[in-house]
Amino acid sequence: xxxxxxxxxxxxxxxxxxxxxxxxxxxxxxxxxxxxxxxxxxxxxxxxxxxxxxxxxxxxxxxxxxxxxxxxxxxxxxxxxxxxxxxxxxxxxxxxxxxxxxxx
Length: 104
What we know:
Layout: H1 5-18, E1 25-26, H2 27-34, H3 38-51, E2 54-58, E3 71-75, H4 77-92, H5 100-103
Antiparallel strand pairs: 1-3, 2-3
């Protein structure tokens, strides 16, 4: 997969959120956390699932909720390793230096 700024931002957000108690994340929260707009984010998530880096599932539709069910994403073990490697490589590449504060 081509390493882009959006991939690195999404990887950083996923790895950061994975450390929290509930490691599953839904798209809107991931978009807000990463700063990647939905038109770029969802195709990126589909490619990540194709690589085996993410698993997905839909929440159960509960009575009384006035919104559609959310689709949740969760990092796989392979995703943790591979996305960690993507971030590590990006930290040393000059084209990602403008993102220096994101790596901190």
